[in-house]
Amino acid sequence: MVAPLYRRTGPNCRNVRLFSYWSRMTMDNGFKAAKRALIAALESGNYLHAARGDITIKNLLAMGAVSARAVIEVIRSCSGAHHSCTAHHMAPEVIVHVLRRHGWYIKFYFIEPDTWFLSVHQ
Q1: How far is the C-alpha of 71 from the C-alpha of 60, rounded, in Å?
Q2: CA–CA separation, 21 vs 6, rounded Å?
Q3: Which residues, 6+ apart, have CB-to-CB distance to 110 below 8 Å?
Q4: DSSP 3-state assignment of 118?
Q5: Predicted TM-score of the model (pTM)
Q6: Assuming Cys at both sites, which of 31, 92, 97, 114 could form a disulfide with 80, CB separation 3.0 to 4.6 Å?
Q7: 3-state secondary structure of 101
Q8: What CATH number does the domain containing 39 carry?
Q9: 3-state secondary structure at position 92
Q10: In the chain, how many domains are there?
């Protein structure tokens, strides 16, 4: 078994547990890198939505109730103070990012080369 690594990924992302055999698949992101990658994914249309039971309420982007352009504007207005992250509850090697700004809640993660949205709602 591979020993877990503990890597600090930014001031809001302390001691997120990663496994060395996942390091090629997960993106080691601080806020600025995550923000750039998220905006690039939205601009290119290259993103996915995680399946969930309450997707009609919790992921307005997936439902088409909000545009990618509108989500980009919220993301651009975010600073590191609006960002937090944790390990994914089912895959602790994956860093889940959360942005909270202007009443919006945007939750996402990266598994290269993909960007996955869990929640986009007010």
Answers
A1: 10
A2: 13
A3: 26, 27, 29, 34, 37, 95, 116
A4: strand
A5: 0.74
A6: 31
A7: strand
A8: 3.30.2310.40
A9: coil
A10: 1
